[in-house]
């Protein structure tokens, strides 16, 4: 297609918008890609919409390739499903709520776990239907406290959200990995420099939730990275691992915790057998099972329950109730690979859940300090330290900040920190939402089985800003070819009629060759045209100018800034 600038609905601006601080925001407004309507609410003009659609195309291609099926749910949602999950309340001021004419409560969807769980419940009822991954590319609404940097943090924005439904934990792990792989492909194709960081406690080193952060100094997320091992985590997640982490060789060594106030494995086994478990526990069992214990103010330990993988009957209520006066500790060793969520369900204190501590908190409490221990999927054990005071019953952990220079939780080296912009998030949800809506299907043995879910988001509109942020110079935008609003930007910089005809001919040839062409056929000075060509940021600029009389056109590479003259006759072959 040939897009003529003489017709295109476009006004570029000479000056930066007064409300813009970051480069991508300034340039996207100046180059006529987006326009502000209200805080965090933007319109997409033709060029901006093209880039947005290109990002969507790449996302769809990779989601389809990994087996995802696209559907589209409404953004206008009734209150009830979110009431059932408690998110109508939990979401707080971030949720846009409204009423219909009859006074019924509605909301604008900020994310759609509830609706996808209900949608699957509505259609599927047999194990034969699983696994299934559904996704949508949809407008989301969040009343962000601080909308920022134009489309980077909007209150209305486009997200690709997908949801996987599996019947087994292995299945969930595979679906999660498939999304993670697809996301790597998406961000690589989009030309984004990114890191994958653990979004859960760094000490755990696992993968129940990871964020994709685009490297950027203007990012709102801070992450730490260990250059020696490649370990990387969002500092929000590592806050629970403070401050010096040391390697730990595994639970069997817990036997060495033979100090006055540290129970040994044998003691724990005794406790377990002291509780009415209906069977005898051995030391070997403790490596597979979960024990939950609390220390009462008097200093005594009380075993609250023991859980067998797959069994959800641990005395959670009792544990919660005892938290107020008690100092909380949980001990567990679980078959993590197959049951990444097992422990989460038992931990009880919101603190641990909120901070993504998945399992294994060792009962050693020495001088008011607790140890958090975990293992990554390779079985490598790591340990972090949390001050006793940091466990608070209301669920906050106010652990010390992670600093530079701190030891990496895997013991491989030191941490360095940098900033990033969250562009994607992959998350093993487990049965949280299928539990809320009793989503059960019939297993092969005729018994009901409850699907386990993953949820996965990509910030589609945010990516337009992120790409602009990572690819620009002082003159303007520089789009990677995959998302550029055109392949070639052809400037007519010669008033001569034959030059104009020559440029039209070249544009037609490029169009026939399947390239997207922007043709600057405006009656404007070459200076104005060149400035706009750089501002708009198409990767290849072709100039039909003075050289035309000698049979030459100029080719400019917007990325390298290089330009050279080539024969007009062979221009088409050179460009394609
Ligand atoms: P953030 O930490 O930036 O607030 P989030 O963790 O709240 O993001 P998720 O709920 O994980 O976001 O949503 C999935 C993706 O949607 C994010 O990774 C991000 O790329 C994008 N996103 C979230 N909020 C916004 C927003 N206000 N504007 C644009 N994109 C957003
Ligand atoms: Mg957010
Ligand atoms: Mg986030
Ligand atoms: Mg997130």
UniProtKB/TrEMBL annotation:
Q: Which reaction does it catalyse?
A: tRNA(Pro) + L-proline + ATP = L-prolyl-tRNA(Pro) + AMP + diphosphate
What InterPro entries does this protein's entry cite?
aa-tRNA-synt_IIb, aa-tRNA-synth_II, aa-tRNA-synth_II/BPL/LPL, Anticodon-bd, Anticodon-bd_dom_sf, Pro-tRNA-ligase_IIa, Pro-tRNA-synth_IIa_bac-type, Pro-tRNA-Synthase_IIa_type1
- Signal peptide range in chain numbering: none
- Which UniProt keyword terms apply here? Aminoacyl-tRNA synthetase, ATP-binding, Cytoplasm, Ligase, Nucleotide-binding, Protein biosynthesis
Q: What is its EC number?
A: 6.1.1.15
Superkingdom assignment: Bacteria
Q: Which residues form the Aminoacyl-transfer RNA synthetases class-II family profile domain?
A: 35-480
Q: Return one GO MF term.
A: proline-tRNA ligase activity
- Annotated localization: Cytoplasm
Top-level enzyme category = ligase
Family per record: Belongs to the class-II aminoacyl-tRNA synthetase family. ProS type 1 subfamily.
**Stated role:** Catalyzes the attachment of proline to tRNA(Pro) in a two-step reaction: proline is first activated by ATP to form Pro-AMP and then transferred to the acceptor end of tRNA(Pro). As ProRS can inadvertently accommodate and process non-cognate amino acids such as alanine and cysteine, to avoid such errors it has two additional distinct editing activities against alanine. One activity is designated as 'pretransfer' editing and involves the tRNA(Pro)-independent hydrolysis of activated Ala-AMP.
PANTHER family, sorted? MITOCHONDRIAL RIBOSOME PROTEIN L39/PROLYL-TRNA LIGASE FAMILY MEMBER, PROLINE--TRNA LIGASE
Quaternary structure per UniProt? Homodimer.
Q: What is known of its domains?
A: Consists of three domains: the N-terminal catalytic domain, the editing domain and the C-terminal anticodon-binding domain.
Protein name in the entry:
Proline--tRNA ligase
Please name the taxonomic classification of the source: Bacteria, Bacillati, Actinomycetota, Actinomycetes, Mycobacteriales
